Each structure stands twice: as structure tokens, then as C-alpha cells.
Amino acid sequence: xxxxxxxxxxxxxxxxxxxxxxxxxxxxxxxxxxxxxxxxxxxxxxxxxxxxxxxxxxxxxxxxxxxxxxxxxxxxxxxxxxxxxxx
Length: 87
Prior knowledge:
This protein is mainly beta. It is built from 1 helix and 8 strands.
């Protein structure tokens, strides 16, 4: 049994070719195609699955924010002179 994420599979399941999903669990989005499950590839589909505002601070919206501070909540940057959490 595979236990690692690879370029082509996620715990032995193939990655979907598209971004449509029919089910979501703690690992992300999934779709059922050709009588089998496939994992929606978050990086390919630009899913912001892990970003939630923290203590009233919004998620950074820029394409590649620069890490300016790290704490137990995550990595932080500044946009328009305001702190934001990096997803």
C-alpha cells in the first residue's frame, strides 16, 4: 500500500485531469470518474483550501507574498501595509 503523495498519485489514487469535484474530505476534493475515485490536484486547480482568516487578519491575495514573519498561526506577509496570513 502506498502511503506517500507522488507526482502522479495521492495515496495510490490517481490525480484527476480536471478540477471538478463530487466529494470533499480532510485530504481535499475528489471526483468519481470512469468507475474510480481520483484526487483533485490542489496546486493545479488553484484551490485555497487551507487559508482561513486568523484573529481578524485576512488571507493574502497576491500571487506570491513574501514571508515577513512566522508564528504558531502560520506565515505572515503585508499587503497595503496591513498584515495578512499566507495560505
